[in-house]
Specification:
- This protein has 489 residues and is α/β, with parallel strands linked by helices.
- The strands form 3 sheets. Strands 1, 2, 3, 4, 5, 6, 9, 10 and 11 form a 9-stranded mixed beta sheet that branches. A 4-stranded antiparallel beta sheet has the order 12-13-14-15, with helices on one face.
- Strand 7 and strand 8 form a beta hairpin.
- Helix 5 runs antiparallel to helix 8 and helix 6 runs parallel beside helix 9.
- The longest helix is centred in the middle third of the chain and has 32 residues.
Length: 489
């Protein structure tokens, strides 16, 4: 492989490095570039200078179902039926083989740990899965930033009283609940060291702040609302969410406010990353790719968080690429996140892996070439109860649901029962009216066509019986505790 384009025009924008920023649970309409009622200054700045994919869709409804596509351009369950990237080739591996320095910093999401091979290809990798103490309490506290977030919520009244008695104010989080600063510091150190060695790099940073429970610093809450969101209301909102209870309009509004404040918190951190690029002197040589791994539901279809469903609130995500020298543009065609690895590789002049399933969008970004109108497939697994714990991880844990987005249509099929849903997003963007209940002749044709796409995709999936693939019983205690802390156990 070569890291120098062989057939590109010299005037075509290109980059020497790639910074991939992924944000857990970030839905598209939480970013100003997708919803003018939102303000995310840093991400909006990237969008203003770069390419905004207006209809970008995750290939799964939650982290382990989405990330195989994002880092290995390999749909979840492909070939061996696993949720990891063991049988695939990651972007980091391809760029490392091409001579790039590589680093990945995941803010303690257990599903992105080395157990599922997400460290593959990285010279430096830290998932921040580390014990802070030998006792049981210390070990559990360190298992996931969400644990610390819940502690922050629970202890907030006492801390507030203490601050008032001491006449102190604190706009920072009580704890670095989502390892945001750990990730920032690690990334900054890597950039500084790599820049001094004058070698191309690939840096991946994954944020967890936007994942429930939403625990933003006070100043970010104040930036997104004029409402005084008291401690008791925060506690009430998080309690209802944690217990899976139905919430009223006021509590739902509070949750949305806290969620949007965490988005602003991540936005500020991304800004500091960009400043680190400037300080290292590599900003003008670096392609920046930003994406959410999936969205978040606020009862659009009856629930909170990201349970196994395939509607837009969970699948429509931001996808922005800023390449120095490339013109800003907005792309309306459907694209999937499986395009990230081949796109990133081509932007730095490296051949993609032949096993990658996504299509490169590099020429769209640098030359304005329109993407081919390919359907975007997404999957999830749903048990008898949508909220069943643990949330299904394997094909044996429930019914396989597959969605296809093509043109104005969203088609969702339960492969095991044959039940289907069809939505026309042109007139029904919230996907509330299932047209398959009484389809017109033209809609029957659409259903038949998209059903064939589902059949083709299902034929590529494995059964999960590969003896070379680590199973759920092999997950180490630290990773399991992190997943438990997320609510996945």
């Amino acid at each position: 492989m070569s890291n120098t384009p062989s057939d590109s025009d010299s005037d075509t924008p290109s980059a020497s490095n790639v910074l991939l920023v992924t944000v857990d649970s970030l839905r598209a309409d939480a970013v100003g570039a997708y919803d003018e009622d939102r303000s995310t200054p840093v991400m909006d700045g990237l969008a203003a200078n770069g390419t905004v994919f207006e209809r970008a869709y995750a290939n799964g409804n939650w982290t382990p179902f989405s990330f195989p596509s994002m880092l290995a351009s390999r749909h979840v369950f492909s070939e061996d039926g696993s949720i990891g990237v063991h049988s695939g080739t990651t972007l980091a591996e391809v760029l490392s083989d091409a001579g790039f320095s590589t680093a990945g910093f995941n803010a303690a999401n257990g599903f992105l740990s080395s157990h599922w091979d997400y460290d593959a290809g990285f010279d430096e990798y830290d998932s921040f899965v580390a014990n802070v103490g030998s006792d049981l309490y210390g070990k559990y506290l360190s298992t996931h930033p969400t644990v610390e977030a819940w502690l922050q919520v629970a202890t907030a009244p006492a801390r507030r009283i203490g601050q008032l008695l001491r006449r102190q104010t604190d706009d920072r989080p009580f704890l670095d609940t989502a390892r945001m600063f750990d990730v920032e510091h690690a990334a900054t150190d890597f950039l500084s060291e790599t820049a001094s060695q004058d070698e191309p790099f690939f840096l991946w940073v994954h944020y967890m702040d936007v994942h429930t429970p939403y625990v933003p610093a006070k100043r970010y809450v104040q930036e997104v609302t004029d409402d005084r969101l008291g401690i008791h209301r925060k506690l009430l909102a998080h309690t209802y969410t944690g217990l899976g209870w139905e919430v009223g309009d006021r509590t739902l509004s509070d949750l949305r406010t806290l969620y949007q404040a965490t988005v602003r918190q991540v936005d500020a951190s991304i800004g500091r990353l960009l400043e680190s690029l400037e300080t290292a002197g590599v900003r003008d040589d670096t392609a920046i790719v930003l994406a959410g791994d999936h969205g978040e539901e606020f009862q659009e279809h009856g629930h909170l968080s990201h349970y196994p469903k395939l509607y837009d609130e969970l699948i429509h995500v931001p996808y922005i690429v800023d390449v120095p020298g490339a013109e800003s543009q907005r792309i309306e065609e459907h694209v999937g996140l499986d395009s990230i690895p081949p796109t990133a590789a081509e932007l730095v002049g490296v051949d993609g892996h032949p096993g990658w399933q996504g299509t490169s969008l590099a020429r769209t970004i640098t030359e304005g070439e329109r993407p081919s109108p390919e359907p975007v497939v997404s999957v999830t697994v749903q048990a008898d109860s949508v909220t069943k714990q643990p949330i299904p991880r394997t094909l044996d844990d429930g019914d396989l649901l597959v969605s296809v987005r093509e043109g104005p249509w969203t088609y969702i099929e339960n492969v095991d029962t044959g039940d289907a849903e069809l939505y026309d997003r042109t007139g029904d963007p919230a996907q509330q009216t299932n047209l398959s209940d009484d389809p017109t002749p033209d809609q029957r044709d659409v259903i038949e066509s998209l059903h064939s796409v589902v059949e083709t995709h299902v034929a590529t999936l494995g059964d999960g019986d590969s003896s070379d693939t680590p199973g759920e019983e092999d997950v180490d205690e630290d990773v399991e505790a992190r997943l438990t802390a997320l609510g996945y156990q």
